[in-house]
Amino acid sequence: MSELVIVGMKLGYLALLWLFVIFTGNIIRTDLFGRKVDASQLTADGRRLSRKQRRVRKAWPKAVKVTHGAQAGIVVPLTDEVLIGRAPECQLVLDDDYVSTKHARIVKSTQGYLLEDLGSTNGTYVNSQRISAPTPFGVGDTLRIGRTMMAVEK
Fold first, then answer.
1. What is the CB neighbour count within 10 angstroms for residue 46?
2. Is the four-CA dihedral 74, 132, 41, 46 of positive or negative sign?
3. CA-to-CA distance for 88 and 74, rounded, in angstroms?
4. pTM (2 decimals)?
5. CB 34 within 8 A of CB 27
6. What is the strand order of the sheet 135-137 is part of?
7. Alpha-carbon gap, residue 94 to 83, rounded angstroms
8. CB 99 within 8 A of CB 145
9. CA–CA separation, 22 and 28 (whole Å)
């Protein structure tokens, strides 16, 4: 074999080796940090929704029902804006030590309803995912504020 063929084989082997390293590094990065997925496309256990489930999810919710907590059973109809907290001026007053005076609000937008955390200490959760920006939610989602769990109903 000529020296040129051997050098070509060495370079080809080196290129394959680097492709393997890059591919493996990408898999490890994805496993550690996950993929970027919109919170509106996730189920309660963190799996991604199918296209059919996303289409059904677009149905606009009508109310929020408190399922766990001191006010279990209370149903609050969704309007243009619903303020949630311990303050008496809130539309949904929660008697929970882990809820701020004005903890969160639900706002109606062109895409549907958005849940927004108002700088609370203990956070606001949609489907067990802590939110830091206004996050869309739909029928069947669960909301958690403090120790109070709520279900979104149609």
1. 11
2. negative
3. 16
4. 0.60
5. no
6. 92-93, 81-85, 104-109, 112-117, 135-137
7. 11
8. yes
9. 10
Neighbours of 53 (CB within 10 A): 13
User: Each residue of 27-52: pLDDT tens digit?
Assistant: 888 888 776 666 655 555 556 555 65
Q: Which helix (H) or strand (E) holds 113?
A: strand 112-117
Q: Say how far apart CA 122 and CA 4 lie, in whole Å.
A: 66
Which one, of 125, 128, 63, lies nearest residue 99 by Cα?
Answer: 125
Q: Which of 96, 89, 105, 97 is nearest to 137 (CA)?
A: 105
Copy the structure tokens of residue 9.
Answer: 């084989």
Length of the chain: 154
Task: State how far the Cα of 14 lies from the Cα of 97, in Å rounded to an integer.
Answer: 61
* d(C-alpha 85, C-alpha 111), whole Å: 24
> In whole angstroms, what is the distance from residue 118 CA to residue 89 CA?
15
Q: Which helix (H) or strand (E) holds 12?
A: helix 3-33
- The span from the CA of 96 to the CA of 146, in Å, is 7
Model confidence over 85-94: pLDDT tens digits? 999 998 999 8
Provide the token pair at 133. 């920006």
